[in-house]
């Protein structure tokens, strides 16, 4: 993965001793790991699925997998990257099982005018951003989040989603246009 200017919320230094304690089954170590990663896992799951209940289920599933698989962590990469990969795989698998991942924004984009405008100042407002992301197709929202927030490359996203890098690039471009439009609409509604 390439370096990004905005590191993932998962980028938490985890002492090797804490991971070793978890490998030995230390309940306190698991509790510490849960507390460290509860928010990043939930946020990632929410952004990929667009559903709070589903995100909560994914948080629990990911943490159970951490408990079951911590012995598989080899230490050749940061612990946070290993756990993030479990969370991403779980979220995308859930979307695939529900038949939600293949959906794209092509039809919706045809209805939107394409404006080359800067993101409105309201984009910084988390509530507006959450609502706008919630109105996007799962595949598009997932590509946007994985690329911008988690720092995945188009090749990595393509591999995760079982698609091509051009699929990732097109979803990112379409999603960016749609996000600009949705944020503009949300901003206008909040000022009305």
UniProtKB/TrEMBL annotation:
SUPFAM superfamilies documented for this protein: Sigma2 domain of RNA polymerase sigma factors, Sigma3 and sigma4 domains of RNA polymerase sigma factors
Name the record gives this protein: RNA polymerase subunit sigma-24
Any GO BP annotation: DNA-templated transcription initiation
Family named by the database record: Belongs to the sigma-70 factor family. ECF subfamily.
Key words, A-Z: Sigma factor, Transcription, Transcription regulation
Domain of life of the native organism: Bacteria
Residues of the RNA polymerase sigma-70 region domain: 33-100
PANTHER family from the UniProt entry: RNA POLYMERASE ECF-TYPE SIGMA FACTO, RNA POLYMERASE SIGMA-70 FACTOR ECF SUBFAMILY
One Pfam family it belongs to: Sigma70_r2
Gene3D superfamilies named among the record's database cross-references: 1.10.1740.10, Winged helix-like DNA-binding domain superfamily/Winged helix DNA-binding domain
Signal peptide (residue range): none
Example of a GO MF term: DNA binding
Residue ranges occupied by any RNA polymerase sigma factor 70 region 4 type domain in the UniProt entry: 128-179
Source organism (scientific name): Arenimonas metalli CF5-1
């Amino acid at each position: 993965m390439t370096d990004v200017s905005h590191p993932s919320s998962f980028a938490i230094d985890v002492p090797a001793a804490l991971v070793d304690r978890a490998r030995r089954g230390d309940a306190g170590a698991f509790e510490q790991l849960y507390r460290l990663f509860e928010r990043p896992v939930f946020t990632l799951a929410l952004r990929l699925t667009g559903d709070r209940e589903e995100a909560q289920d994914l948080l629990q599933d990911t943490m159970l997998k951490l408990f079951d698989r911590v012995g598989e962590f080899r230490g050749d990469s940061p612990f946070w990257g290993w756990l993030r990969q479990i969370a991403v795989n779980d979220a995308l698998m859930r979307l695939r099982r529900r038949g939600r991942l293949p959906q794209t924004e092509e039809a919706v984009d045809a209805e939107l005018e394409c404006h080359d405008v800067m993101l409105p100042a309201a984009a910084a407002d988390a509530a507006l951003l959450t609502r706008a992301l919630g109105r996007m197709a799962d595949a598009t929202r997932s590509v946007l989040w994985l690329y911008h927030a988690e720092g995945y490359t188009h090749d990595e996203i393509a591999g995760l989603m079982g698609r091509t890098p051009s699929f990732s690039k097109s979803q990112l471009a379409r999603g960016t246009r749609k996000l600009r439009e949705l944020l503009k609409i949300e901003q206008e509604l909040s000022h009305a």
